[in-house]
Amino acid sequence: MRRVCFQLQVKPDRIQEYTERHAAVWPEMLRALKRSGWHNYSLFLREDGLLIGYVEVDSLEAAQAAMESEDVNARWQAEMSEFFIDLDGARPDTGFLELREVFHLEDQLADADDDGAH
Which of 70, 80, 109, 110 could form a Cys-Cys staple with 32, CB 3.0–4.6 A? Predict the structure, then answer.
């Protein structure tokens, strides 16, 4: 499973509404994400609108492509796109900035245990 972390910027005047919308995501959208291979998916929002997302997928490209075939995704992305800045015409689900993972405890512990390190 690949761990993906990404960032987007919510417009400051839309933070409250964005939060409310995500407190009750459409059940159809939730099921589409699950079907499309999005696992352990979370969003974290800072007070200034910095949004950090985390998801586990077999392949980000495959998960995005699977969502492309879901009718509900087009509707959801159209509604969500108005909440963000700096998308340059992209949808939120493809226009985010992916962050590079630099540390993961379990991976390093496994490597240390394999090496017999203390």
Answer: 70
